[in-house]
Amino acid sequence: MHGEDLLASLSDVSDETEFYTPMPAGYKPGQTKFVAVFGTVMSGLGKGIFASSMAKVMQDKGLAVTPIKLEGYLNRDSGTLNPYRHGEVFVLDDGMECDMDLGTYERMLDQNLSRLNFCTSGQIFSQVLEKERRGGYLGRDVQMIPHVTGEVKGRLRELAVVSGADIVFVEIGGTVGDHENAYLIEAMRELQYEEGPGSCCFVVLTYILEPPALGEQKSKPAQLNMQRLNAAGIHPHIIACRARKPVVKKVREKLALHSNVPMARVFSMHDCESVNLIPEMLRSAGIDQAVLELLNLEEKADQDSEQEARGAWNTYTQQFREANKPITIGITGKYTSLRDSYASIIQALEHAGTHLGAKVQIEWIDSTMLADDAVAQMLQRLHGIIVPGGFGTRGADGKLASVRHARQQGIPYLGLCYGFQIAVIEFARNCCSMPQANTTEIDPDTAFPVVDILPEQKLIEGLGGNMRLGGHDVVIKPGSILAGMYDQAKSVQLRFRHRYEVDPQFIERLEDKGLIFSGKAAKHPIMQVLELPPDTHPYFVATQAHAELTSRPLAPSPFFLGLVQAALRFSGSTDLGSTNPKDPNDAEQSPQAAETA
Ligand code: GLN
I need a surface site. Which of 110, 217, 316, 350 has the fewest CB within 10 A? Predict the structure, then answer.
């Protein structure tokens, strides 16, 4: 039976039907295809990177794609999650705080996503419980199957309608066998049943071990997990094997044999230098053709658009491989032991470095270890410093010390969110005779609360989803470094996630001593970007925004371009002239800003 017929038959059911298939208005069965990506053996295999790369190769064929991440946890969003455990909190334009994988999708697909692209169990269960109170289940006992799974399918179909995509890429969070994602896997089984053959493509990302003592690749855990997936009613069409080195044929044969997946669709997905190399790796393995065939999409594919898209992307990856001017950027943060906490910053540095031919080395500096007297020694090899976003007191002194060092020694500096606020505090303390200046986040009783809680935040109780979030316009001061970075535009939209701001009553004092606020909120006196004049410092720029979130491989963030370019100059390894219009630092440079304290 075809999907359309089956879905039609769902309207002709018994009074006490066992089916529950909410259909959003405008949903046309059979029009949208679904690719679902499952993870087995263990987490952390890069399912989001894989799914987004797959979505990209299909997008390159001229197909409209949209992703959705289904998370098993009960939080409504990622806002209350500790980045140390879960990786960075990514923020979308509409203010959704979500999993870092959404950042990977935005970067790969060069698409701005919305809250419809991120769904947690917390959202699904809230919806079910609210609907039950409204009598939405018509006297039925509300069950995991069909009701909860029905709401999951409803979310996927709603996304299909709103996005108008040809293919919805569904990433199932967690690993097969986790309790919390079992019902999500079941929802995918039901979706395939309802939509019919040729509408869903199931992809499994698995892991091939290579114990050093054996020196050979082993597939048993992958095989056992495949059985588990089969038992859940999911029979994959494609298997991608993650491994350190290319997966040998014998291992792929074993997996093919144990899963009924033809060898031609059992791929090796071994480690590579940059996530941005993966789409081409998938393409040369033939995954794109496999998906087209499985979903009967051949006719919609467009060769010309593929050539164009591939050309631009491959130029980028080629430049990435060829970039050879070494610079070292230090990132001082609290979560330095987990690179995922700063995933977007790492990417933004890669984007800017690649465009400028720089091979950016990152040096992680634990700000909790940065005592004042150790700063010069710990930061001595750096050509640039980033103080990233953060919360609370721990490590703040180390961040302040590194900002001071950057400002005094003329080391290129980029402050992001907390790094902007810390720069204001440092300047107030050391250049404006406000020795105990602070943020009230650290010291509520400070005599100089140069950074204070946003007025609208004072009334808020609880922690979830209530910061100043999402995309907001920033009005640009003409003639500033910022204006140069954005080609003299009057305003730019950046993304935010903060509770505190520069207290407007201190702005004049800070500006009097030479700090320039070059970006301001459109409707409120909220300072969004600061800079020191280029004749006093080679590059001292900070923003209340998270500039890293909107950097894309083919459109790097100008904040990061500015930093990397200044770092190249600082390292003396560049021959970039003053002809580059994006170069804000043409003036003679003096090594430090005037200090008045
Ligand atoms: N803690 C600061 C605030 O809430 C900065 C937030 C951040 O860096 N994301 O305003």
Answer: 110
